[in-house]
Amino acid sequence: MSDSKRHIRDEVAEIPPYNSGLTLNEVRERYRPAVIAKLASNENPLGASPNALLFQQDLQDLLRLYPDPKGRALCEALSERFGIDASRIILGNGSEDLIAVICKAVVRPNDIVTTLYPSFPLHEDYTAVMGGKVERIEILPDLSIDIAGLIAAAHRKPRMMLFANPMNPVGSWLGQDDFKRFLDAIDDDTLLVIDEAYAEYASGDDYPATMDILKSSNKSWVILRTFSKAYGLAGLRIGFGVTSNAGFCDFLNRVRTPFNTNSIAQAAAIAALGDEDHLARTVALAISERARLSSALMKRGLKVAPSKGNFVFFDCETDASIFAEQLLAAGVIVKPWKQTGYTTFIRVSVGSVAENDQFLNALDIVIKD
């Protein structure tokens, strides 16, 4: 058999496969559990807004015709929601698509891209594919963000600073005062990319109104958002970015594929965006159950990170992959973390009350064994 690796760039060959988690069918085939709690991918237990199904009468044309390549209707709806010109909004096949677009447009060989660690792996992977060098700012022993380390990195003037706030997988976040201090430290030649996939869940005065702060900034920036989490449209793959100016957005649009978001996703996103009551119910459930899960885990003597996402990151104090496999036997899917230094940690999504109860019951069985 021929060596296919010889055709592949070294940067690509060195990237580990993405840990996308198990599907329901995979778990059914492996363990045949009566009920499955899928708590690995931070999906919305309430699902999408019922309004997202109302476009079905137009389905034939949505399937038959190419989508609007600029997603004008959705961009206008987002413009109205966030008070920012539609010419500064770019759509993506999920926000992860836009991470790739930004890296293709910005990162050159040997450029430094700074991120928080542990990280959403694609922040690092897309940087590496372009030949960039990743600089990690690791969380502190209490699992909070190292703001001093982040500011020191900003002073080194990297090509780009790319990280999630709240962090994925940890859930920790930069508060408003720390974010402003950090922003003051960023050089004008550094592009700031904030991945806010979980911003809807980050309630409280201590979470920064990032878009409002950056609107009055002279820095170059992109804020990434998604409809996959709080809006419950993960299967349709639709996300968006808000950029510091229309000119920069135009350059990013030259890099993405022309039809990177499909017509059904665009229509569903507009409908979901308009259902504020469903979003409020989703967020309220996540915040309530997040607190309950965190408290339950701490009562069991486990180290738990503070979280403003729809997930909780905790140390199971053993090999997380083995621990997660034991939970699978009870029909509970979680995500064992595999980045160096955090292989005893698990990220569990906040599900419904019943799903979270199933997780806690399974956890007790695994801990006793």
Structural features, described:
Its cofactor is pyridoxal 5'-phosphate. This protein is an alpha/beta fold and 369 residues long. It folds into 2 domains: 4-47 and 277-368, Alpha-Beta Complex (Aspartate Aminotransferase, domain 1), CATH 3.90.1150; 50-274, Type I PLP-dependent aspartate aminotransferase-like (Major domain) (Aspartate Aminotransferase, domain 2), CATH 3.40.640.10. Helices cover 40% and strands 15% of the residues. The protein has helices at residues 10-13, 24-31, 59-64, 72-82, 95-106, 121-129, 147-155, 176-185, 210-215, 246-255, 263-274, 276-299, 320-328, 353-368, and strands at residues 37-38, 89-92, 112-117, 133-138, 160-164, 191-195, 220-226, 239-243, 303-304, 311-315, 332-333, 335-336, 345-349. The strands form 3 sheets. It has a 7-stranded mixed β-sheet with strand order 2-8-7-6-5-3-4, with helices on both faces. Strands 9-10-13-12 form a 4-stranded antiparallel β-sheet. Strands 1-11 form a two-stranded parallel sheet.
Shape descriptor reads globular
With strands numbered from the N-terminus, the spatial order across the biggest sheet is: 2-8-7-6-5-3-4
CATH third-tier fold name of the largest domain: Aspartate Aminotransferase, domain 2
| Helical/strand content category | alpha/beta
Low-pLDDT ranges: none
DSSP E strands, number: 13
- Measured by DSSP, the beta-strand proportion falls in 15-25%
How far apart, in Å, are the first and last alpha carbons? 45 Å
The CATH architecture of the largest domain: 3-Layer(aba) Sandwich
* CATH homologous superfamily (4th level) name of the largest domain: Type I PLP-dependent aspartate aminotransferase-like (Major domain)
Number of individual domains:
2
From N to C, what is the helix and strand string?
HHEHHEHEHEHEHEHEEHHHEEHEEEH
* Rg of Cα set: 21 Å
Output mean pLDDT.
94
Please report the number of helical segments: 14
Helix content: 25-40%
Family: Belongs to the class-II pyridoxal-phosphate-dependent aminotransferase family. Histidinol-phosphate aminotransferase subfamily.
Pathway: Amino-acid biosynthesis; L-histidine biosynthesis; L-histidine from 5-phospho-alpha-D-ribose 1-diphosphate: step 7/9
Subunit structure: Homodimer.
Cofactor: pyridoxal 5'-phosphate
